[in-house]
Amino acid sequence: MGKLDEKKKLKQEALLSSAFKLFTEKGINNTSIADIANSAKLAKGTFYLYFKDKYDIRDRLITSQGNRLFENANKALLKSGCNTLEDCVVFIADNIIDQLSGHQALLKFISKNLSWAVFSNIRIAGRDNMNCMDIFEELINKSGRKFREKNMMIFMIVELVNSTCHSTIIYKSPVTLEELKPDLYQTIRCIIKQFEITGQ
Length: 200
What we know:
The chain is mainly alpha-helical. It has helices at residues 3-26, 33-39, 44-50, 54-78, 85-101, 104-110, 114-119, 132-143, 150-171, 177-195.
């Protein structure tokens, strides 16, 4: 990477970091592009060299942060010794829930858009985030099992985890996280079974 490319990357990272901090502290509606540029110590016009508007940078951050959650979970999974597909998916779900529980600002920022982040093709130039769909595909292929509508199965699992945990972590309602987990994980196992093609 040349010096010019390195400078561009540093400016982009400064804008992303500033936007994330402001969005999580003030909310997107109370954050202007000028706020983001000022916080990054860059001219407002520089923002537009990298992003169309504040919703573009928000979408890219949601996708990037969502993928990072799955990357962290996958790294932990590789050291876990999990064998079955169900155990691996439950392990990933549990890890992501624990990450979000420990970083509620991130949970509020992603809000209920984690499944959108999983299926979005939006990428941030210069970042090598692993696509979370690749993680699921690898687990399914490794299992040697066949599934119908794999994308729908993954969508339902991610949406279930995200929506139920959002309310439980933020509002501690209708139950605590520890009360929720056993039934949530059993439901994940049932979803996987429901989509499996057997008897062929």
